[in-house]
Design goal:
The protein is 98% helix and 0% strand. The protein has 106 residues and is mainly α.
């Protein structure tokens, strides 16, 4: 009877050791899978961040180009206004120069 008890204890210890080994292997597998999933998620997040940054950069470029085009339009309008004003004052300027020249020769 003592031998049977000892054999039963040894068998229980063997089973416990096997269960512990299986649990350790399963835990290692779960940790490995979790690390792989985390790496995949990091790569996915990095890709999404790069895409978002590229989209923000494209939007900023587009906005900058639009502002530049608007500034060029405004500069063109100012140039036209100055040319028109100069054209309007040209006869007065010519008269002033001629008057100055004729008063200086007398």
């Amino acid at each position: 009877m003592a031998k049977e008890t000892i054999d039963a204890i040894r068998e229980a210890e063997r089973e416990a050791a096997q269960i512990e080994e299986n649990a350790a292997r399963e835990a290692a597998r779960l940790v490995r899978e979790a690390k792989e999933q985390a790496a995949a998620l990091r790569e996915e997040a990095a890709g999404a961040q790069k895409q978002a940054a590229a989209e923000r950069l494209a939007a900023a470029r587009e906005a900058g180009e639009a502002q530049l085009a608007e500034a060029e339009r405004e500069a063109g309008k100012e140039e036209e206004a100055l040319r028109a004003m100069a054209g309007e004052r040209m006869p007065q300027a010519i008269e002033a120069v001629l008057a100055s020249l004729s008063s200086g020769t007398r």
